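Let's do one together. I've listed all components of the complex below, 222 residues spread over two lines.
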Amino acid sequence: KNEVEQSPQNLTAQEGEFITINCSYSVGISALHWLQQHPGGGIVSLFMLSSGKKKHGRLIATINIQEKHSSLHITASHPRDSAVYICAVRVAGNQFYFGTGTSLTVIP
Amino acid sequence: KAGVTQTPRYLIKTRGQQVTLSCSPISGHRSVSWYQQTPGQGLQFLFEYFSETQRNKGNFPGRFSGRQFSNSRSEMNVSTLELGDSALYLCASRQAGGAADTQYFGPGTRLTVL
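Okay, and this is what the predicted structure of the assembly comes out as:
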């Protein structure tokens, strides 16, 4: 059983659509991260959450600690948002567990 | 500031050989973590170094080792390479290594084991 589960695995959207990616985890965490990985491998850290909600441009991330669940929302999606989005949780001892990623394709 | 750099970017080795990968963190960052990414297993945490000490280690065999130098640069070594070690190896640096610090990833080293 994976400590971190993401859904959906693959997502195709039309430009302008509102997108939601979900992440559930089964361990106690000190923080949850959302990462973006573009083709070629480069990873960018989008958000780090330990509670509540954060917003950066068209991206919004929320976390519910009691339900062990986080969502990443993209408003007004654009083809440049096409990437793999990875949920990662940090546990005691600074270890990380990763979800398998959600591959997003936004079609013009 | 320059970002996290990794060398080499691509590497081809044969089974049984050993390999050393290098990571230079962002200037002023003292924590360096290493990750392995494969199509089958996704991203997995290898280890973290802070101020030249290994602070945490993931679930990998002893063939995987690392070290950090006084200038915070880090190296990762894999001995007796196996086909399954083919992967993208990523390093990431953080300023002080605390829970509130953002990680900055390098571009990765793509290792192919033949």
